[in-house]
From TrEMBL:
<keyword id="KW-0573">Peptidoglycan synthesis</keyword>
<dbReference type="InterPro" id="IPR007730">
    <property type="entry name" value="SPOR-like_dom"/>
</dbReference>
<dbReference type="InterPro" id="IPR018044">
    <property type="entry name" value="Peptidase_S11"/>
</dbReference>
<dbReference type="Pfam" id="PF00768">
    <property type="entry name" value="Peptidase_S11"/>
</dbReference>
<dbReference type="InterPro" id="IPR036680">
    <property type="entry name" value="SPOR-like_sf"/>
</dbReference>
<keyword id="KW-0961">Cell wall biogenesis/degradation</keyword>
<keyword id="KW-0121">Carboxypeptidase</keyword>
<dbReference type="GO" id="GO:0004180">
    <property type="term" value="F:carboxypeptidase activity"/>
</dbReference>
<feature type="domain" description="SPOR">
    <location>
        <begin position="358"/>
        <end position="442"/>
    </location>
</feature>
<keyword id="KW-0645">Protease</keyword>
<keyword id="KW-0732">Signal</keyword>
<comment type="similarity">
    <text>Belongs to the peptidase S11 family.</text>
</comment>
<feature type="signal peptide">
    <location>
        <begin position="1"/>
        <end position="25"/>
    </location>
</feature>
<dbReference type="InterPro" id="IPR012338">
    <property type="entry name" value="Beta-lactam/transpept-like"/>
</dbReference>
<keyword id="KW-0133">Cell shape</keyword>
<dbReference type="InterPro" id="IPR001967">
    <property type="entry name" value="Peptidase_S11_N"/>
</dbReference>
<keyword id="KW-0378">Hydrolase</keyword>
Length: 442
């Protein structure tokens, strides 16, 4: 294992831009995770593939045709249809998208546009690629398709045109739906299609932040600006899928698209992606680009190596929750210490449990407790909300279930912060009120 870790660290040092303060922390975290984590094949949700974006050659694959839930990778197809509508002239970047009650009511992560109000198409694009906004996804679906169901049918039809034979879409955002499925190979194909078909719009995937309503909204894609050559594309998470990521890399005349699905945490997913980039990029071609995916006839023209194999319906259901130990999620002894602090017993307040988000949230969150029952976790959230109503006014409480040492616990968390600094400031405020708290990136 020591040799493996040393080799991986060498790769990280070569791939990460050392001018960023992120590099040293990433290398250290990677060492801890690689030393403790089981191989990817031991994770039943894992799937991965790396394609040479110039030739279509498979540079790496593991369970690439196994059925998986796309989560917010779904928004790649949502954006494909937006770009298609822009290119055809049916809409413009300044077209206004009005939010219905249905769109405005979507759970986080969201932009928070009230029903009846609107944003322009370009704002919607930025919100989808950075914040992965579920409310914006539904508003876009209704705007272009007339209804969410009709837009989902358009998405599936487009998937077939692109040769994504193992993919079915039922919504535009990727929130849990047992019939919404894909494969790592299909997601890689979609990533290449976005690059090939819409070079004039592809740079949107490199957006690291944008401003809306006076707020700066940062991307969920931690590799942008931190890993040499990474220019997009999309993150995703629901409980049934684990942490997903599609990355596009172009550097030194080489170009690849890589997919990681089923990561146990955002950190381990990112670390694995960087490792895949380091391992496969040297094998990529420096020749001229080939057209790998022709519009409307993809299954006949796509490179043979990219063709899918048949795949059964996913065995895991979206409602199921991944079993993961907290120390593994943190990847450090400090995480275990924070867990002990947040799990410390406190008097139970006589409050009704709060209404929580129906799915765990991406980005920076804060944890205030870990309880043996969901009701206790919800009560802790309600109690904490009373302690600091101002600092928690614009974030969303939610619970996450996990197991450790054969016992089930429920994390009490708040999500929807704009970034690390916002989450840390919220925790500092709570600690001053004698509320145990720590911030973590989901």
């Amino acid at each position: 294992m020591g040799a493996v870790v040393r080799q991986a660290l060498a790769g990280f040092a070569g791939v990460f831009r050392l001018s960023s303060g992120f590099a040293l922390a990433a290398i250290t975290a990677a060492a801890l995770m690689l030393a403790a984590a089981p191989p990817a094949s031991a994770n039943s949700k894992y799937a991965g593939i790396v394609l040479d974006a110039k030739t279509g050659k498979v540079l790496y694959e593991d369970s690439a045709d196994a059925p998986r839930y796309p989560a917010s990778l779904t928004k790649m197809m949502t954006l494909y249809l937006v770009f298609e509508a822009l290119e055809s002239g049916r809409i413009s970047k300044n077209s206004r998208i009005t939010f219905s009650r249905n769109a405005a009511a979507e759970p986080p992560t969201k932009l928070g546009v009230p029903a009846g109000q609107s944003i322009v198409v370009e704002q919607a694009i930025h919100a989808l690629v950075t914040r992965s906004a579920n409310d914006v996804s539904t508003a876009v679906a209704e705007f272009i398709g007339g209804s969410e169901a009709k837009f989902a049918a358009m998405m599936t039809n487009k998937a077939r045109q692109l040769g994504m034979s193992s993919t079915t879409f039922k919504n535009a955002h990727g929130l849990p739906n047992s019939a919404q499925k894909t494969t790592a190979r299909d997601m890689a194909r979609l990533g290449i299609a976005l690059r090939e078909h819409f070079p004039q719009y592809y740079s949107y995937f490199s957006t690291r932040s944008f401003t809306y309503g006076g707020r700066r909204i940062n991307t969920h894609n931690n590799l942008l600006g931190r890993v040499t050559g990474v220019d997009g594309i999309k993150t995703g998470y629901i409980r049934a899928s684990g942490f997903n990521l599609v990355s596009s890399v172009s550097t030194g005349g080489k170009s690849i698209v890589a997919v990681v699905m089923g990561g146990r945490t955002a950190r381990s997913r990112d670390a694995h992606m960087v490792n895949l980039i380091q391992r496969t990029l040297p094998k990529a071609s420096t020749g001229g680009d080939k057209i790998l995916i022709a519009r409307g006839a993809a299954t006949q023209t796509v490179a043979a190596a990219m063709l899918p194999r048949s795949a059964p319906v996913p065995a895991d259901r979206p409602e199921e929750v991944p079993v993961t130990a907290y120390a593994e999620e943190q990847g450090s002894a400090a995480g275990a210490t924070a867990f002990a602090e947040a799990a410390a017993p406190r008097p139970q307040a006589e409050l009704d449990p709060v209404s929580t988000a129906s799915t765990a949230m991406e980005g920076w969150v804060i944890q205030v407790a870990s309880m043996p029952s969901e009701d206790e976790a919800k009560r802790r959230l309600a109690e904490t909300s009373q302690h600091a109503p101002t600092v928690l006014a614009n974030v969303t409480p939610f619970t996450e279930v996990f197991q450790m040492d054969g016992r089930t616990y429920y994390r009490a968390r708040f999500g929807g912060f704009q970034g690390k600094s916002d989450a840390w400031r919220a925790c500092e405020t709570l600690k001053k009120k004698n509320v145990a708290c720590y911030a973590v990136e989901n």
